[in-house]
Amino acid sequence: MPRLRHMSYTSQCPLTLQGASAMVPHTMAIPRPCPLYYYGGLPVKGTRRKGRLRIEGSALFFRVPKGKGGEAIDLAIPFSAMEKIVLTRDNYYGSDTCLFNLTFRDEQGKSFTIRFAPTIIIPRRRIALQQQWFAFLSQAISSPAKGAPRSQK
Predict the structure, then answer these.
(1) Contact between 106 and 74 (Cβ < 8 Å)
(2) Could you tell me if residue 8 is inside a domain?
(3) Per the structure, how many domains does the chain have?
(4) In which element (H, E) is residue 114 found?
(5) Rounded to two decimals, what is the model's pTM?
(6) Is 13 within a domain?
């Protein structure tokens, strides 16, 4: 009987980055960087564009290059600035589009909600990838850093 290989989109080692280790438990693995589709939410032109999502230190890096009629987006959102993340479905973009709505505050305290979807071609792997990213981000948001008070706005 052949052995099945387990494909995973997270790193196999436990969370070891200094900044992120204070945010989430050590048993939580950091999701690998992945492609994404940006669906809007920021005051820039151009929606439904390809980009890249990654975790570095204690921040989420969200990068969408300049596209046709759209401006470049290059965000570093610290976990402490994130307020909530929710999943929504939007059939306008496709039958299985699961969108992440991430609400965060900038340095001036203004609130933004960006809409995006981590993506990969194979549907079964895309669902697993999205589950891993959602679990990681929801855990990072619900576990504030030690000694860092959360905003109650």
Answers:
(1) no
(2) no
(3) 1
(4) strand 111-118
(5) 0.72
(6) no
Most confident of 64-68, 72-76, 126-130, 147-151: 72-76
Asked, for residue 33, whether it belongs to a domain, the answer is yes
CATH code for the domain in which residue 108 is found: 2.30.29.30
pLDDT at 83: 94
Evaluate whether 48 touches 38 at the Cβ level (below 8 Å): yes
Tens of pLDDT, residues 6-40: 333 333 333 334 444 444 444 578 899 999 999 88
59-79 burial, b at 16+ Cβ within 10 Å, e below that, comes to bbebbbeebeebeebebebbb
State the DSSP H helix or E strand holding residue 18, giving kind and residue range, or none if neither.
Answer: helix 18-21
* Residue 32 structural domain: 18-142
